[in-house]
Amino acid sequence: MARAKSVLSEARQIEIASELIRLDARLQVLEADVRLSRERLLRLYREIRGKSPPKGMLPFSTDWFMTWQPNVHASLFMNIHRHQLGLADTTPVEALIRAYRLYLEQIRQLGMPEVLSITRAWRLTRFFDAGMLGMTACTCCGGEFVTHSFELAHQYVCGLCNMPSRAGKTRRASAAYRMGEAGGCA
Question: Are residue 35 and residue 85 in the same domain, yes or no?
Fold first, then answer.
């Protein structure tokens, strides 16, 4: 005898899918983390966004997360995400949503551009789950940053403490650096 679906469980899945859609998650993310049919997800996406979901491949390389600015944003997100996963009764998808909202809040307060999309944040968590990426402490500031898991990082210095020469070329970045907000080992 088939077990009847719980109305409350289905309602929670719709709520999670709706939150992900409002955060601009791709359909592949929804299909992976929400227990609703593809047809229901498509209808929900169209109802919330007023259009069909974008098509195309998801980002699939860990290398994007290693470049200077994406690494700083990915590291901020992953530190928040790891904390959210540690909270009681939090599912992985709920931790993703909460961590991404907190990431956006922090980025907006700093007046920085949003470099990390919810889809890239989701992919980042998958790379961590697969053991392809991990966190490494900076020997200068002590912050934890996203690195390749099998990279030799015994003397790792983060991109904030050792900024690339072109990183401070924007008006906002150079103003932050002059005000002492940028990194740099003492």
Answer: no
